[in-house]
Amino acid sequence: MQPRTPPDTVAESFSQLLFGALTFRAYAAAVRLGIPDAVGDTSHRADELAAVLGADEHRLRRLLRALVALGVLRHTDDGRFALTAAGAGLRADDPTGTRGLVAFFGHPLMWRTFGALERSVREGTPAFTAVTGRGFFEYFAEDPSFAQSYHEGLHWGTEMTAPLIGMSRDWSDSRRIHDIGGGDGALLTALLAAHPYAHGIVQDSAEALEGLPANIRRHGVDGRCSAVPGDFLTEVPAGGDTYLLKNVLHEWGDDDCVRILGNCRTAMAEGARVLIVATLLPEPGPADGDQEAFTYAVLSDLLLMSASHGERTLAEYERLCAAAGLRITRVSPVPHLPNDNVIEAVAA
């Protein structure tokens, strides 16, 4: 007979789950209301912030009090509110870009999407499609502000991981890098800055590429990086020796992935490679090894499954590559990122 879990332990676990969700909602509300930017480098009373933000003073004060408890704000001796070092990281001008990630995942539409997880599991369709009646990227045309929030979050997520991806392999054999679905080129421009012998192309939608010129200037890679607007489901630029797909395939179903990989195979120069940067799911079965890494992978899968497709196992990537005329030759872990890998494939 299994021992019963003490009620107070169950209650404690439930509180952690509930308050964990509320913690993120408080962060998201702070960012979307503009609290960190309104506070800035000084301190303010709640009524002053309410006037600036156009918010209800009573409810804003309660949110500010919660943000103090969460370490985002601090009380000054005269009862005003000021940013902590952690709170300053949520400002629009903070170089870590945490604000962009919080703003996107805290977007009301994303929370409606997460709320439809049960429906997604029952019906076998992405939760985002169940909520909006549209595919994730198809919806961008209907809501440009949501698309902008996505691209900003994607940019800052890539900014944080680009140096680690650069450490994951020897890039000396990559002279012509084509970053497929590379958005504003945050990854490619960082790689080109670290490897001055290389040139590159970023292919994505015209909207996603709007931030590329700024990244080219910031990394000092003028003349070595260019944009190619286009649909990688149709074709990709030819002649590259390295085709980079960072967090692209997990947003598409198997048939589309085979099409994307097949387009890369067709466009590849002789001796070229495809590099798939992705979180790898563990194979089905009991968790083996790092429990934290296992949890990260499966929760990342649920996150992606809500919006589009989801993460895959290495065996699943092997099947997709084989169907596209490619074979996987190497899997290199990305330092300090649980379960993230650079999967290298060449012509079969």
From TrEMBL:
An example molecular function term from Gene Ontology annotations: protein dimerization activity
Ranges of residues in domain O-methyltransferase dimerisation: 16-87
Keywords: Methyltransferase, S-adenosyl-L-methionine, Transferase
Active site, per annotation: H250 (proton acceptor)
GO biological process: methylation
Keyword check for Isomerase: no
Top-level taxonomic group: Bacteria
Chain ranges of the O-methyltransferase C-terminal domain: 115-326
Protein name as catalogued: Uncharacterized protein
Species assigned in the record: Streptomyces viridochromogenes
